[in-house]
Amino acid sequence: MKNLLFKSVLLTAVVVMAFMTSCVSQKKILYLQKEQMSDSVTSIDYQNKRSFDYKVQPGDNLYIRVSSMDKNFSEFFNNSGTNNMGSNGSGSNSSGNAGIYLNGFNVSDEGTIDFPYAGKIYVKDLTIDEIQQKIQNIIGEYQKETIVYVKLGLFNLTILGEVAKPGQYQVYQSDINLFQAMALAGNATDFANKKNVKIIHQTTEGSQIVRVNLNDADILANPQYYLKPNDIIYVEPLAIKRYGFTSIPYSTIFAAASLLITVLTFFMYTSR
To answer: CB neighbours of 149 closer than 8 A, spacing ≥ 6?
Structure first.
C-alpha cells in the first residue's frame, strides 16, 4: 500500500512538472535580446541604412503634386487626382497629415496612370524617384520652372498569425519597420514564434519569403527591418500551441495536483 501511494505521489509530481515546463519562457517572449549591453554602456548603435527602392505595381496609389509659379497651372494638376482610396483603411498608424495622401493616381492593371496633358504614363516597375523624373520631364515641356513631387500614396501591409489583431493595414507614411507593424497588429501573442517570423515580399517575378528573428537585437541592423509595400508578415505559433496547451487552465491543474499530493501524503503517513 505504501509503495502504491509513493508511486502515486511521484507520478503526480512528474505530471505537474511536465505542465510547468510547458509554459512559455521569457526567452521566447522578449524582443531584442543579446543587445551586448553592460553596466557601463547606456546605448549601442545598430547601423541600418534605409533603402527605399520599391518598384511600383498595378493597384498602387501615387500622390503627385506639381508646384509652379503659375498658380492656375499648379491647381489644374493638383486637383486632377482620383480619390479612390476611400476611408475604410483598417490601420490606425498615421504619420503627419494623412490628408495629403488622399488625392492620388491609381496605377491601372496595365501599369499606367492617367495624367493631365500627358495622358497615360507607364510607371510599372519604376521607383518613386524614376517616376518623379519621368513626370518632371513631361511637365517641363508645357511649363518651365515647375517642380514635381511624387510619393507612394498608400502603404499596404498584411499581418497574420500569432498577433492580437491580424488583418490588412493601410499606412499613411513612406516607410514602416517591423516593430511598428507589430504595434499596428496589437503586438505578437505570448505563443508567437518570434525567432522565425516570415516576411513575404511581392516582386516583379512573383513572391519572395525571408525569415527574421525578432528575439535578436541584431534585427535592427538587418535589411529586412524596414518593410516594403504589400508585404505579408506571418508570425508562426510555437510548438506548445500546436499541442493544445494554450487552452489548459494551469492554475486549476496546479491547485488540484497540490491537493492530491497533500491527500496522498496524508494517507501514506496515517497508514503506517
So the answer is: 63, 64, 65, 66, 67, 132
Strand (E) or helix (H) holding 140: helix 128-140
Distance CA 44, CA 244 (A): 40
On whether the CB atoms of residues 205 and 128 are closer than 8 A, the answer is no
Strands 119-122, 231-237: pairing is unpaired
Q: What pLDDT is recorded for position 96?
A: 40
Alpha carbons 33 and 207: distance in angstroms, whole number? 30
> How many CB atoms sit inside 10 A of residue 270's CB?
7
Is residue 175 a contact partner of residue 206, using CB atoms and an 8 Å limit? no
Cell triple for residue 17?
Answer: 512538472
Residues 6+ apart with CB under 8 A from 3: none
Euclidean distance between CA atoms 270 and 9, whole angstroms: 15
Contact criterion met (CB below 8 Å) for 147 and 67: yes
Long-range contacts of 215-220 (CB under 8 A, 24+ apart): 215/27, 215/28, 215/30, 215/31, 215/32, 215/33, 216/32, 216/33, 216/34, 217/32, 217/33, 217/34, 217/35, 217/36, 217/46, 218/34, 218/46, 219/32, 219/178, 220/32, 220/46, 220/48
> How far is the C-alpha of 263 from the C-alpha of 18, rounded, in Å?
21
Cα(251)–Cα(259) distance, rounded to whole angstroms? 12
pTM of the model: 0.65
Q: Please write the tens of the pLDDT for every residue from 177-207.
A: 999 999 999 999 988 999 999 999 987 778 8
* Positive or negative torsion for Cα 240, 211, 218, 164: negative
